[in-house]
Design brief:
TIM Barrel; Oligo-1,6-glucosidase, domain 2; 5-stranded antiparallel beta sheet; binds 1-deoxynojirimycin
Length: 558
């Protein structure tokens, strides 16, 4: 089938269903809640939704632990609700990307329950089992660590073997080297595509192929074993087969979550000739404000720009990029990338949108980002619900209680629950998210920051996003144009151009909450330059100027 590659002109909205909108007062968002907000999504102008997992799950990791891949989580509704939601989306020109979590399943999945029954069970080999090391086999099979702390192996008393879990022990890793597992995944993907879903976001897809023999990982300060299961030996063959046998038969898209990816890997996974994934989420820009990925450090703009530009230049004509500042695993982007914004929250948020979304790639906006939602003001470490935090705290309490203070400081800035507090719809009780008790507290700033208020205010972040999305969608200059960065070493501004068939965009973003002088690049010659996007409400000409705090300007030149 000839694929239209519609994702190149998509603007995708990520919904974390648990926190989006609760229709039945149990404090947990659900599918009927999503249905009630489809007009809102249409108004914003997005043309696709990535829905974080909504499958049956015991919710050890909020749905990223699936116990039935073909049914809907009880808290979220029914398959009929799902069908109504997809219909409602399609009627509004919105496609649906489901989350595909197949590096691991839940330990409550039928396959794992069978596998526990013994070494001869036909499902045993759906997972990765090994004998322990040492005299009595009481040491885990290797030194790999779980992404959520501790050993990546759990001992199973009855069979005397360990199983691998790169996340919690309730998320056993599937054995992709077993052709039956790969066939199961193909069937699941086909099942949802046939039901009308338009693509998949593939969870930690870089982890699915493990090195033969599962050797010990090199010692380092953070996670052990990465080098043996990230971009493992068969990953490209497995993804190619999934593409050839299933995905290529539908006009769908895939975006792979790619921990451990650099530009070269991103090309390997997304080059059209290789027929694997369509696009990937990389993390290098998310690590520019951290040591070892999670210890916060002050952001240096030139460091961030170096990564952004490397992907713009590197993937050009070779692969396809994704553009994101936020998702359910990341803290909110203001002030993370804009520093101390004072009374300029709106300007800062709009500037961030311009800086990111005028680049090449498929843009994603995470629920609440379009109204400038912020990190939650955590008062104590016990308020976090994230299983990752709970696991790590268990370890700290046992081995290094003195590190708790540092951990809390880091979590306030970086914790995943920051982005998971409920969506703020209005200034009424519980921000209009639920009539019950919300599963995670509502950010107290909901009286000022909420959808209703943003829709009323013509200068809101919401209306700016709407304008930006309308400007971007269907615009070949942004979809296909080449990229050229100016002033790469500046720690104040991100300035780049896009060129396409005689047209040119000049994007100028001041990342600082202060005035910054701007000089027109010396090769900037043009017949006319129109200001097409601006986060201040006065006119500007393309010339040497003093940029206002967080000022963002986009000129279209001929
Ligand atoms: C990445 C997901 O985005 C995250 O939320 C989850 O905890 C892990 N993968 C494990 O599935």
């Amino acid at each position: 089938m000839q694929r239209s590659r519609w994702y190149k002109d998509a603007f995708i909205y990520q919904i974390y269903p648990r926190s989006f909108c609760d229709s039945n007062g149990d404090g947990i968002g659900d599918i009927r809640g999503i249905i009630s907000k489809l007009d809102y999504l249409q108004e914003l102008g997005v043309n696709a939704v990535w829905l974080s997992p909504c499958y049956k799950s015991p919710n050890d990791d909020n749905g990223y632990d699936i116990s039935n891949y073909r049914d809907i989580m009880d808290e979220f509704g029914t398959l009929e609700d799902w069908e109504e939601m997809v219909d409602g989306m399609h009627k509004r020109g919105i496609k649906l990307i489901m989350d595909l979590v197949v590096n691991h399943s839940s330990d409550e999945h039928f396959w794992f329950q069978e596998a526990l029954k013994g070494k001869d069970n036909p499902y045993r080999d759906y997972y990765i089992w090994r004998k322990g090391r040492g005299k009595n086999g009481k040491r885990p099979p290797n030194n790999w660590t779980s992404r959520f702390g501790g050993s990546a192996w759990e001992y199973h008393e009855d069979s005397g073997e360990y199983y691998l879990h790169l996340f919690t022990k309730k998320q056993p890793d599937l054995n992709w080297d077993n052709p039956k597992v790969r066939q199961e995944v193909h069937d699941i993907v086909k099942y949802w595509l046939d039901k009308g879903c338009d693509g998949f976001r593939c969870d930690v897809i870089t982890y699915i192929s493990k090195k033969e023999g599962l050797p010990n990982g090199k010692l380092n300060v953070a996670l052990l074993g990465d080098e043996h299961f990230t971009h493992g030996p068969n990953i490209h063959a497995y993804l190619h087969a999934l593409n050839k046998e299933v995905l290529s038969k539908y006009d769908c898209m895939t975006v792979g979550e790619g921990p451990g990816m650099n530009v070269k890997h991103a090309i390997d996974y997304t080059s059209e000739e290789r027929e694997e994934l369509d696009t990937v989420f990389t993390f290098e820009h998310m690590h520019t404000d951290a040591f070892f990925q999670f210890l916060p450090r002050k952001l240096k703009l030139s460091r961030l720009k170096k990564v952004l530009a490397a992907y713009q230049y590197g993937l050009r004509d070779k692969g396809w990029n994704s553009l994101y500042w936020e998702n359910h695993d990341q803290p909110r982007s203001i002030p993370r990338f804009t520093g101390d914004f004072g009374d300029k929250r709106k300007e800062a948020a709009k500037m961030l949108a311009v800086a990111l979304y005028m680049q090449q790639g498929t843009p994603y906006v995470y629920q609440g980002q379009e109204i400038g939602m912020m990190n939650y003001p955590w008062k104590s470490i016990d308020e976090f619900q994230d299983v990752m935090v709970k696991n790590l705290m268990g370890i700290f309490n046992k081995y290094a209680p003195f590190l708790k203070k540092v951990a809390f400081w880091a979590l306030k800035k970086k914790g995943r629950d920051n982005a998971r507090t409920p969506m703020q719809w209005n200034d009424k009780e519980n921000a209009g998210f639920t009539t019950g008790t919300p599963w995670l507290p509502i950010n107290p700033n909901y009286k000022e920051i909420n959808v209703e208020q943003a829709m009323k205010d013509k200068n809101s972040i919401f209306h700016f996003y709407k304008k930006l999305i309308a400007f971007r969608r269907g615009n070949p200059l942004i979809i296909h144009g080449t990229f050229k960065e100016n002033y790469a070493s500046s720690n104040d501004i991100y300035c780049y151009e896009r060129w396409y068939k005689g047209e040119r965009l000049m994007v100028i973003c001041n990342f600082k909450n202060k005035e910054i002088p701007f000089k027109l690049p010396s090769d900037c010659v043009y017949k006319s330059a129109d200001l097409v996007l601006h986060n201040y409400d006065y006119d500007r000409k393309l010339e040497d100027m003093t940029l206002r705090p967080y000022e963002a300007l986009v000129f279209k030149m001929i």
